[in-house]
Amino acid sequence: VIQAVFFGICVLTDLSSLLTRGNDSQEQERQLKKLISLRDWMMAVLAFPVGVFVVTMFWSIYIYDREMVYPKLLDNFIPAWLNHGMHTTVLPFVLIEMRTTHHQYPSRSCGLAAVCTFAVGYILWMCWIHQVTGVWVYPLLEHLSPGVKIIFFAAAIIIINVFYLVGEVLNNYIWDTQK
């Protein structure tokens, strides 16, 4: 969902940019700048770090023991192309976007705070679903003791923050914005 919303905003930004080109309307220019800021923020805080996190975590655990993240039973309901759409294609598309469009990253402290807020919110949402249904969203969590779950969640938050920093460094390297 994050990727679909993000790339939808990218398309909207590009169309708005094309449609307002040559137009002297300051209001349209102001709205376009807001849209560009939203696109850049989403790339920095959500699309890149969450996308890279999903691809790395999913395939690492899948290779170790697929039943922990994507039981074979799901093959009967979710075709392989959709699985790759959710867990593979995210990475090349987000890298292509980073290479083709310069993104203005927020200040490091604001960006990391936003990434942490998202990660903690997602973890709380998973815990709430478990509390209500008695089932963990990801089968891997069934096999972890409460203490190990806390360590796992803390490690996940650290990893997603590292991916935020990798995205910032990569963006600066590609666009040579850091002197």
TrEMBL record:
Topology in the lipid bilayer: Multi-pass membrane protein
Residue intervals passing through the bilayer: 41-64, 76-98, 110-138, 150-170
Keyword check for Aminoacyl-tRNA synthetase: no
Subcellular localization: Endomembrane system
The entry's keywords: Membrane, Transmembrane, Transmembrane helix
Any GO CC annotation of this UniProt entry: membrane
Reactions this protein catalyses: 12-hexadecanoyloxy-octadecanoate + H2O = 12-hydroxyoctadecanoate + hexadecanoate + H(+); 13-octadecanoyloxy-octadecanoate + H2O = 13-hydroxy-octadecanoate + octadecanoate + H(+); 9-(9Z-octadecenoyloxy)-octadecanoate + H2O = 9-hydroxy-octadecanoate + (9Z)-octadecenoate + H(+); 12-(9Z-hexadecenoyloxy)-octadecanoate + H2O = 12-hydroxyoctadecanoate + (9Z)-hexadecenoate + H(+)
Assigned protein family: Belongs to the AIG1 family.
Name of the featured protein: AIG1 protein
Name of the coding gene: Aig1
